Amino acid sequence: MITSEYLKTRLIPFAEKNPQIEIVVTPRPSKHPFVRGLYLNGREKGISARNKTPEEIVETVNLIRDNTGFKNNKRFKKPVISTTASVRGIWSPFKTQPHKI
């Protein structure tokens, strides 16, 4: 299996290079491989390693390692205010011309 090749050849050097990460391998009989990251802020991120090559699994593990665990869907509640005036000036209904049909 491709995943077992990754575990045998590349996981141990990755764990030695990144001592700040705890790596746990658990067997999942009759299921696809799964990479899961648990972050200190309580969040969890998991990515399936189904049908991935060892290089793609390395990218997935690096993505989870480099991620912070926070979600990026933050909304801004304040309107955007420009510091420069518009090139066209302030809009006024009296300055517009009626459309010709």
How many distinct beta strands? 2
Write down the overall mean pLDDT: 79
CATH topology of the domain at 2-66: Glutaredoxin
From the N-terminal CA to the C-terminal CA, the straight-line distance is 70 Å
Q: Largest sheet, described in full?
A: 2 strands, antiparallel
Q: How many separate helices?
A: 3
Order of helices and strands: HHEEH
Residue share in helix: 25-40%
The CATH architecture category of the domain at 2-66 equals: 3-Layer(aba) Sandwich
Subcellular location: Mitochondrion
Domain Ribosomal protein/NADH dehydrogenase: 2-68
GO molecular function, one term: structural constituent of ribosome
Keywords: Mitochondrion, Ribonucleoprotein, Ribosomal protein
Index terms:
101 residues; alpha+beta; Glutaredoxin; two-stranded antiparallel sheet; 10% strand; Large ribosomal subunit protein mL43; ribosomal protein; Thioredoxin-like_sf
Short description:
GO terms for molecular function: structural constituent of ribosome. With 101 residues, this protein is an alpha+beta fold. 28% of the residues lie in helices and 10% in strands.
What does this structure look like?
One of its GO terms (molecular function) is structural constituent of ribosome. The protein has 101 residues and is α+β, with helices and mostly antiparallel strands. The protein has a domain at 2-66: Glutaredoxin, CATH 3.40.30. It has helices at residues 2-9, 11-17, 54-66; strands at residues 34-38, 44-48. The model has no long low-confidence stretch (mean pLDDT 79).
